[in-house]
Write a structure and sequence with these properties.
With 202 residues, this protein is mainly β. The chain is built from two helices and ten strands; from the N terminus they run βαββββββαβββ. It has helices spanning 13-16, 111-125, and strands at 3-10, 25-28, 40-45, 57-61, 66-69, 80-82, 88-93, 144-151, 164-171, 185-191. A four-stranded antiparallel beta sheet has the order 2-3-4-5, with no helix packed on it. A three-stranded antiparallel beta sheet has the order 6-1-7, with no helix packed on it. The radius of gyration is 24 Å and the shape is flat. The protein starts with a strand and ends in an 11-residue tail after the last strand.
């Protein structure tokens, strides 16, 4: 396990409420599947500290784990901030690398193209390093679609035509499944029809 020792100080609940979502903090490294006592990871608050209620704070770690804690509870690991003059030294878990979770579109997509793709990755990072753990291949129809975000109507039906924003034009369905839509909006996927300008020219 690769860790780094850093000087830090524990924050009180009052200090945490003054932090924003871009402030780097350190929280317990305990994960759902893996218990790492007395070890911390870099994290960021899921929303500004002043917007939390009841003394419970939620942070998202750089490893995409959500951690909730009561900063003032002495029985919990607490929240720390890096401080050169801090009174304590904490062990911070380092990153071993990145697992890519991609929707990768390979034109043609035959076995030769995929073999060349994996060979290029292994050449760049080392044959023993690049490992393919899961491989889900799916044929993609050659259809262009418009992906819209449409506001979910409220109140009486048919009172107003729903508002619509275009999010993307893409080959179905390489991106439709991965766009995060706003609260109160729903995804709409339609066959792409190019806009034809019939305005006469001189």
């Amino acid at each position: 396990m690769n860790t780094e020792k850093i000087a830090a100080r524990r924050l009180s609940l009052e200090e945490v409420t003054k932090l924003g979502v871009n402030d780097r903090i350190f929280v317990s490294a305990d994960m759902a599947e893996l218990k790492l006592s007395d070890c911390y990871v870099p994290a960021f608050l899921t929303k500004s500290g002043e917007n939390f209620e009841g003394g419970s704070i939620t942070a998202r770690t750089v490893f995409e784990e959500e951690v909730s804690c009561l900063p003032d509870d002495e029985n919990e690991a607490g929240i720390y901030l890096a401080d050169e003059n801090g009174p304590v030294t904490i062990e911070v878990l380092q990153s071993a690398g990145v697992v890519l979770d991609l929707a990768l579109f390979v034109p043609g997509g035959d076995k030769g193209a995929l073999t060349a793709l994996y060979a290029a990755a292994r050449q760049a990072f080392g044959a023993d390093v690049v490992q393919i753990w899961r491989q889900g291949l799916k044929e993609v129809p050659d259809v262009k679609v418009d992906i819209f975000e449409e506001q979910i109507p409220r109140g009486r039906k048919g009172s107003d035509s729903p508002k619509r924003d275009r999010r993307a034009i893409d080959t179905y369905p390489t991106r439709a499944d991965f766009i995060e839509f706003s609260a109160g909006w729903k995804p709409v996927v339609e066959i792409h029809r190019p806009v034809v300008d019939d305005t006469p020219t001189i």
